[in-house]
Amino acid sequence: MKRSVLLNAELSRLVAAMGHGDLLVIGDAGLPVPRGVRVVDLAVTRGIPGVFDVLDAVLAEMVVERSALAEEAGADLAGRFRARQIGAVALMPHDALKAGMAEARAVVRTGEFTPYANICLYAGVAF
């Protein structure tokens, strides 16, 4: 059994396989996923797990070079994201964020019910 924070086998494999610049999206329960993009569905019920629970576990193992949030997220939600190690943060319209998800290695679906609680994480390198 692993010692590190991230115990979900599918998500752990995904993070381990990512290369520099690859995109991983962690989203709320209602985020639409483009056809053909892999989904790691962690949602159990409303609010479980929350987007920040999943984000913190992923950040324990993933080097993030930059990230993107929807402008519509608002200052409070954006501040909660920015309090973490997510690199330079770009803000974009929610529709642009959804369109960019077509390039994602995967979308992680959480049980989060907060509108616009979605984040795009672009992998960095550890050296």
TrEMBL record:
Gene Ontology CC entries for this record: cytosol
Gene3D superfamilies, sorted: RbsD-like domain (3.40.1650.10)
Q: Name one GO biological process term.
A: D-ribose catabolic process
Q: Does the keyword Isomerase apply?
A: yes
Q: Note the Pfam families from the entry.
A: RbsD_FucU (PF05025)
Extract the GO molecular function terms from the UniProt entry: D-ribose pyranase activity; intramolecular lyase activity; monosaccharide binding
Q: What EC number(s) are associated with this protein in UniProt?
A: 5.4.99.62
Cite the binding residues for substrate.
Answer: D28, H94, Y116, A117, N118
Asked whether the UniProt record includes Isomerase among its keywords, one would answer yes
Q: Where is the active site?
A: H20
Q: What class of enzyme is it?
A: isomerase
Which controlled-vocabulary keywords does the entry list?
A: Carbohydrate metabolism, Cytoplasm, Isomerase
Q: What is its main location?
A: cytoplasm
Question: Domain of life here?
Answer: Bacteria
Give the pathway listed in the UniProt entry for this protein.
Carbohydrate metabolism; D-ribose degradation; D-ribose 5-phosphate from beta-D-ribopyranose: step 1/2
List localization entries.
Cytoplasm
Q: Which reaction does it catalyse?
A: beta-D-ribopyranose = beta-D-ribofuranose
Identify the HAMAP family for this entry: D_rib_pyranase
Question: What function is annotated for this protein?
Answer: Catalyzes the interconversion of beta-pyran and beta-furan forms of D-ribose.
In the record, the note on similarity to other proteins reads:
Belongs to the RbsD / FucU family. RbsD subfamily.
Q: How does it assemble?
A: Homodecamer.
Q: Which PANTHER family match?
A: D-RIBOSE PYRANASE
This one is known as D-ribose pyranase
Species name for this entry? Paracoccus gahaiensis
**What is the gene name?**
rbsD
